[in-house]
Design brief:
GO terms for molecular function: glycosyltransferase activity. By secondary structure, this protein is an alpha/beta fold. The protein contains six helices and eleven strands. The structure holds hypoxanthine.
Length: about 250
Amino acid sequence: MNIDLAVIGGSGLYSFPGLENATRHSVDTPFGPASGDVVIGDFAGKRVAFMARHGESHTVPPHRVNYRANLWALHSLGARTVIGVNAVGGIRADMGPRVIVVPDQVIDYTHGRYTSFCDIEGAEVKHIDFSEPYTEALRRRLIVAAGRAGVPVLDGGCYGATQGPRLETRAEIARMRRDGCDLVGMTGMPEAVLARELDIAYACLALVANFAAGCGDEAEISIEEIFAHLAAATAEVPRILAELLKS
Ligand code: HPA
């Protein structure tokens, strides 16, 4: 199937607005069930595939997402370019609520997740280069597309992937800041590395929902506020992707 772009929607993005003539595809994968169907339709004159990372009713928590099945399903339907849309907390001062970032680095703090397609019986062991965890050409296209759409985005930043589903402690975030993380989210890994294993061009559109623990003025992080900020940032995503598809 010809798919120009696949989008994996995170918290706040459970369907793709404006997708026309949509068909649903339930894919059997060697890794078990994906988070849900892949919805394929027309958007901005191109073929777009969409999957809700947490399921369409947000029932799959970050540590239980079957990242391998999701990527496998998209790839088997023909997707070779994927944008992961991820809700994040901002650590860097200029990465406050509603800011959109296209990160360029990752530190993985997750555990107990399947991080490779080569850990099934008899599979060939593959060591891949991951110096640059995102596809630079796709990152550039995304940044240019955001500019054309008139949506400000920040170019670059280090995404620290945590286990979730709880938010982090202040001490954990202080450590992540010392490590060089600019953003924190629960779903950026192993999605990025699995995409690389399948030779999928992959970039992340990180939507800042809140300042991470200890980074803002508030003593506690309000989950209601997270979702309000996310809704505002998510509303910009289709315009960016429409420009991306024109490029
Ligand atoms: N931490 C981890 N993941 C997140 C956050 C956060 O503060 N906000 C949105 N996703």
